[in-house]
Write a structure and sequence with these properties.
Layout (H helix, E strand, L loop, with lengths): L1 H24 L1 H14 L1 H8 L3 E2 H8 L3 H13 L3 E7 L2 E6 L15 H7 L2 H4 L5 H6 L5 H6 L3 H7 L1 H25 L9 E5 L5 H9 L4 E6 L1 H4 L8 E5 L11 E5 L7 H14 L6 E6 L1 E2 L8 H14 L6 E2 H10 L4 E6 L5 E6 L1
Parallel strand pairs: 4-5, 4-7, 5-6, 7-8, 9-10
Antiparallel strand pairs: 1-3, 2-3, 8-12, 11-12
Helix pairs in contact: 6-11, 10-11, 11-12, 14-16
Amino acid sequence: MGDIKVRGKKEDEDEKAEVEIWNYVFGYAKIAVVKCAIELGIADAIDKHGSPMTLSQLTTTLKCEPPRLYRILRFLVHYQIFKEEPVTQDSIGFALTPLSRRLIRHGERSMAAFILLESSPVMLAPWHSLSARVLDSGNSPFETAHGKDVWSYAEENPGHSKLIDEAMACDARVAVRALIEGCPQVFDGIKSLVDVGGGNGTALSMLVKEFPWMHGINFDLPHVVAVAPKVDGIEYVGGDMFECVPRADAAFFMWVLHDWDDEECIQILKKCREAIPQDKGKVIIVESVLEEDENDKLEFVGLMLDMVMMAHTNKGKERTLKEWKYVLGEAGFTRINVKPIHAVQSIIEAYI
């Protein structure tokens, strides 16, 4: 009986593998079709319509060829990105789901710009050189594909720079809201806050609006802050965080430090230590903390982000709590608090 059970388990595992391998053979199809849906504006059209739309209504609105659009919709319905609902007794419409609502371009929880960034030819090309990166310590996959690092490329290509800023703004709208709702006390007593690598200022504008007593400083590379939308209560400063950080009660980072290796992070954090008050100043870091936690439904995102860092940056990586303690300690911070929020990232408070 024992042998029969073992053979049965092996057969089940083989059958599961036989099915699962096709997800890797054609894994690119899912992201390509989702990207297509965003570019066509399917979710936007249904949202604007206010109710499920028939294939005929969608093809007219989107100016698409009906059989081809139907094949796209059939695929997306299978993966529960959209759903079918009766419109009349004789017709079926396509409706939004919580997932497709995140594909609406200007939705409150939209991730459309993030998907468009990561599925762009510029960001896909480096993945073909990932194995070479693992085998030696040469150029990053991004440099191999484009001849320069991601930041130099963005500076010379305003369109790609804008796509990066819009993608980061997508996440900021979700993560900052989770921070405000879950840990508002993090900003108690802070009269001035410098957002280091603040991009187009989405995160900082949300914080200043929520905590109006706080003066915000959006600090990023000159070409980034030059095109950032101007918001009352925020000062815009261009510069290099490796050289100097504007003075404030606290320094704020969101998905910035994971772009750099330990020595670079230590250098950046030392500049922040110089910029904040010695007695009450602190650094607030919004980043993933990799830990083996079976209860964390978003743990897999941190692991995927770590692969993204390997493909798209020179030396960036996601960090465990032990690794965060190391870089912060080497930079002169003696005490840290880590607080989970309802997002991919956690909140790390570091004090001198």
